[in-house]
Amino acid sequence: MSERASEPSAQEDQGETLPELATPPEEVVAELAEDMRDAPTTATGARGPILESAGVSMVFGGLRALNEVTFSLKEGEIIGLIGPNGAGKTTFFNCLTGLYTPTSGAVTLRGRPMPQDPARVTEAGVARTFQNIRLFPSMTATENVLVGRHVRMKQGPISSLLHGPRFRRSEAEALDRAEKLLAFVGLSRFSDELARNLPYGDQRRLEIARALATDPSVLLLDEPTAGMNAQETEATRQLIFAIRDLGVSVVVIEHDTKFIFTLCDRVLVLVQGELLVEGSPDEVRGDPRVVEAYLGAPPDEVEAQLQTGAGPASDPAAGPASDPAASPASDAVESES
Ligand SMILES: Nc1ncnc2c1ncn2[C@@H]1O[C@H](COP(=O)(O)OP(=O)(O)OP(=O)(O)O)[C@@H](O)[C@H]1O
Ligand SMILES: [Mg+2]
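^ thats the input. predicted complex w/ adenosine-5'-triphosphate below
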């Protein structure tokens, strides 16, 4: 654990704290932690491996997008996954979450085979966000979070039809949780706003709230800061620490190496579908193979990039311009490549 969620963020240091963009409020964190402790998927505190892949390969026609990727996420860990465009990062998430069936290899959650169905993966306790944001654009922020919450709502058909007391209690609890989650990600003021009207960075935070509504024990974030400014990026870093402190283990794909190196306990570098290097941020930052193979620029130039935290020079996907989700929530896409 490199840092606590309660530490002041850079923007607070500069006296520029935006309303609701700082560290999640302590009372909301405490209440959420209490609520999530009762979830069936909750962390056991064993600190052993929770999500693992063994020799996962994914072949599309003649293209080997992933080659024998083996990894292990421990409870309470934040792992960063970096690599150039097309390295296979999103494909790996798709294999972990049942969207793709790996050509070979195995994915396990607490030692059990991962279901090959995204809905059942969510039920088992693995939630994710998407590189291309997937919200329901014509639903409010609250309604989007409620969609995530429905995974955990157990209703008998009769109670649902009659809107009986159990149904009403369950709906009230879901609404209460949605409100807490919106406060947690700093979006309370947008609770009744349509998702499509939210600023781009806030849509990404809303997607995180919806993912958290499913009571995950593992959260996979695909480029959570793409298109965000420096303040939003810092707030997202603090948010991920707070998510980890709720007992959720996290894997983050990101091109912004400064973000990754200051957030993660361990960093994995994927190059052309292969896990090239794995280690602490310091080990990865200083590894000559990363410098040579990952960024593909003269070593001194690459070293300077890694030190300053700039992304790869050839990184057109780091901002919204190359991301279809850049136009607000008009894109609840059905497939992710
Ligand atoms: N459904 C698919 N069908 C065919 N090829 C695919 C599919 N999904 C991914 N690929 C290919 O697999 C490779 C890895 O793509 P992937 O999207 O996983 O890379 P990435 O590391 O996430 O890149 P980026 O940083 O640009 O998001 C690419 O060559 C991509 O074109
Ligand atoms: Mg990707």
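The chain has 13 helices and ten strands.
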